[in-house]
Write a structure and sequence with these properties.
- By secondary structure, the chain is α/β, with parallel strands linked by helices.
- The chain has a single domain, classed as 2,3-Dihydroxybiphenyl 1,2-Dioxygenase, domain 1, CATH 3.10.180.
- It contains 2 helices and 7 strands.
- It has a 4-stranded mixed beta sheet, with no helix packed on it.
- It is globular.
């Protein structure tokens, strides 16, 4: 087996509401809407994030993404109105934890 692409899937209640929130999180609109109930951000050629509308399972997803400048990201998210507790030190790295409107967790990590 040779995996060539990976999408973190965040299960959400309402696609349009979530697309608006994630567009603020990523600083741009979704790259694709491959089918009803789904939107995708292609963050690099081989990985990205997929939203999947499934109200019964929503709010149980978590993703972790490395970020090159956590402080700049925290500042931008604050300007966008996305609440977060700020960047904090944990063991050998720093993290910025964000929760989407459905309760899914997004953890950005960096040096």
């Amino acid at each position: 087996m040779a995996v060539t692409r990976l999408l973190a899937q965040m299960t959400i209640v309402d696609l349009e509401r979530a697309v608006g929130w994630y567009a603020k999180l990523f600083g741009r609109d979704a790259d694709a809407r491959p089918m009803d109930g789904m939107a995708e951000w292609h963050l690099a050629p081989t990985f990205g994030v997929q939203l999947w509308e499934d109200p019964e399972r929503a709010g149980r997803s978590t993703m972790v993404a490395d970020e090159s400048d956590l402080d700049a990201l925290a500042d931008r998210l604050t300007r966008e109105g996305i609440d977060h507790p700020g960047v904090r030190q944990v063991t050998a790295s720093r993290i910025l934890v964000v929760t989407d409107p459905d309760g899914n967790g997004i953890v950005f990590s960096g040096a």
